[in-house]
Amino acid sequence: MSVLHVIGGGLAGSEAAWQAAQAGVDVVLHEMRPVRKTDAHQTDGLAELVCSNSFRSDDHEHNAVGLLHEEMRRAGSLIMKCADAHALPAGGALAVDREGFSQAVSEAIEGHAKITIAREEIAGLPPAEWDNVIVATGPLTSPALASAIQTLTGEDSLAFFDAIAPIVHYDSIDMDIVWAQSRYDKPGPAGTGADYLNCPMNEVQYNAFIDALLDAPLHEFKDWEIVPYFDGCLPIEVMAERGRETLRHGPMKPVGLTNPRDPDNRPYAVVQLRQDNALGTLWNMVGFQTKMRYGIQTEVFRMIPGLENAQFARLGGLHRNTFLNSPKVLGPDLRLKADPRLRFAGQITGVEGYVESAAMGLISGRFAAAEAKGGKAGIPPATTAFGALIRHITGGHLEAESYSGARSFQPMNVNFGLFPEITLQKPEGTKRWRGPEKAKAKKKAITSRALADLEDWLKSA
Questions:
Q1: Considering only CA atoms, which of 128, 294, 280, 309 is closest in space to residue 196?
Q2: For residue 189, what are the CA distances in angstroms to 179, 181, 184, 193, 194?
Q3: Which sign, positive or negative, has the C-alpha torsion 211, 215, 217, 222?
Q4: Any idea of the CA torsion for 352, 358, 361, 363, to the nearest 10 degrees?
């Protein structure tokens, strides 16, 4: 049985090492701290939380991240076990004592008979004799390793910052206002000529929107997080600062589009949304990367006609990160196509959030353990939170040219838009669903299906 090498002692790496060791595989966990420090970490503890201490909602019946919590618990997650043991009062959320949590993870890993911790930096690709490796180095991957990965996978396969536009749930878009049309009706290589959703603005609406952008409070970057702006990836508020008409001649230009509800009058400006996943449940706001604070983004973007009641799967942002173009370079088993001895886990795969990162560690650890023992683990069903995340990062995302001309894959939190649709049955004697009741019932149906399918997968693993 081969030894598994896990590079990175964050949440994903710690979870991967634990899962493999629990399956009976010998693991070497390589963590470069304290030999080489990062700009974000304060300690040399495993699974240190460098930002918030919240794991977000713990409601596994009506919230996608809460469902992911529950799936991880049922799969024997070390991260969830330690989080539960060090939980703090936080309403419906799971928040943790960050020092107690990290210490608990460290003690569990250090005390496991199957795990050896090596405090060293892996500068470059792992040695050729390591035939079973998980890379879980996170958003602050060391420059030497990042450069080696980029050389192996290609120049366009690794990003060093996020220029993120918001993503909207399709069923929250007002299709009585919005219409489907590609600019100049061009179908493109995989389109029909009606591939974008268009939100029209008149002059008054446009000017009010520009005023809101210019007045909005902005995210303040830490020194180590500052990234350069590229002219093709400018935040929308930076474009607005360059002149009130700049956005009308950029991502909000109205040319080549005809509103079928008012064909004789061209809109003053148009916000376009592009399909973001194969299911058609998520739509990306084209060219709307932003550094506005999260709290104001929803308010400002709901000024856009057709998005008055928009629900966001992801808000916009711009910050330093390191992540793979996973749909291009990873297979569904999280292996690197260019070097199959390497698997990836955590934020570097293109997931966002503590729990999502740990979940990818959990899955990659199980995959690697099965391989070390001469077998092969099945991929979790797409109906589960595990499977929905894997599908998004390795194939569910639709690659499309962004406004800037750059590749369009960006990191994502788990959300219900990543799950396959489900057909609801109305309760007997009910004439029709009420809006909130239907939404709640739909979420419950998705989570119930997920946990049932998870149990089947765990039994077969």
A1: 280
A2: 21, 15, 15, 10, 13
A3: positive
A4: -100
pTM: 0.74
Distance of CA 459 to the CA centre of its chain: 28
**pLDDT tens-digit profile of 157-212?**
776 665 678 989 999 999 999 999 988 887 755 567 888 899 999 999 999 999 99
Question: Counting beta carbons within 10 angstroms of the beta carbon of residue 188, is it exposed (0 to 12), middle (13 to 18) or buried (19 or more)?
Answer: exposed
Grouping H, G, I as helix, E, B as strand and the rest as coil, residue 94 is strand
- Euclidean distance between CA atoms 49 and 10, whole angstroms: 8
Q: Beta strand 312-314 with 167-169: parallel, antiparallel or unpaired?
A: antiparallel
Distances (CA, A) of 26 to 38, 181, 191, 302: 28, 55, 49, 52
Q: What is the DSSP string of 186-239?
A: --TTT--S--EEEEEE-HHHHHHHHHHHHHS-BPPPPGGG-----GGG--HHHH
State the average pLDDT for the chain: 88
Strands (E), 38-157: 54-57, 87-88, 93-96, 115-119, 133-135
What's phi and psi for 209, nearest 5 deg? Answer: -65, -45
Task: Count CA atoms closer than 13 A to 365's CA, side-chain side.
Answer: 36
**Token couple for 103:** 């210490």
Do the beta carbons of residue 251 and residue 403 sit within 8 Å? yes
